[in-house]
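Entry for the shared binder. Reason: the reviewer on the internal report wants the predicted structure included alongside the sequence.
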Amino acid sequence: MKNVDYIIVGDGYAAVFLAHQLITNNKSFVVFSGAGKGASKVSAGVINPVVLKKFTTFWLAEEQIVFLNATLAEMEEYMGKNYLIPAQIHRIFHDENEKDLWLSKTQTEELEPFLDPEFQTLDSIKNPFGTGAVKKSARLNVEEFFTDFLNYFENKGQLIREQFDYSVVQANTYKNLNFKNIVFCEGMGVRKNPFFKEIPVIPNKGHHLKVKLSRPLSHQHTLKKKHFLFPLKDDLYYYGGTYDPNERENEIDDFKVVELIEGLQAFYPHDFETVEINYGFRPTVKDRRPILGNHPDHSNFYIFNGLGARGILNGCYFSQELFQHIENGKDLMSEVDIKRFIK
């Protein structure tokens, strides 16, 4: 039998950021990575402190941005790479009213740290009303982040590439493993988890395209009008993602692809080729707060879920909250505590 402090079930943002907490605190662990590709791995990786539809911010935005930057710097110490791409979001304005609203928001205490009052006009795209830059925004190199971390875990003997079998887990044992705590970081996979399947996680399906532009952009910005556009490697660009809270089949929705194509055509005035179509199901919660905590009957069985569209920020920030709760008995914030769903 092998002894570990933690079993982590899942391999998305929640799992990787929790594993980082364990690494920095000298805790032993294994990560179970199944065959599926969850929402994290097909996510845009946009780090954005502003709700760009309404020009508002959200709960703990500043704290999460600061903590993410510190965490990525810590990761760089043992990974030898920083996965942050310091490319700001530029919001393409629809009309003068949006510009005026943006400008007024830059004068508020809440938004002043995030909205640049100086407008810009960019070449290569249609932006007759200009763009506004989101300060402290960036992107994560999603593909390399997950590829490198899973390889790192595998090289350390910390990765098990198989589907977790709930039927054989006991209070402190799983097959040939003895563990102190087990944390389920499964996203929508939680619906098959007999211990947490009643937790109200709602799938929000999102599509995105990989496109080849006939005239590449002359900058590295993340552009946002209805969706995000930014460069990838091999002369490809990411464009997406959609939000569809109505649960649908596990297949590409053609009407969402049309929505994306028309959205890109609205501000990119040249031809482009759709190279690839991807989608994923984001695990969301009605109150837009993650879900952390332990099972009422299995005190060392924990859940870390409901990260929603802000998987990077939520996954990073609340990984520390969960670790401190498990190891040091720190109370969870009531807003994210699983107890809010347990009667």
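Summary line for the report: The two ends are 37 Å apart (CA to CA).
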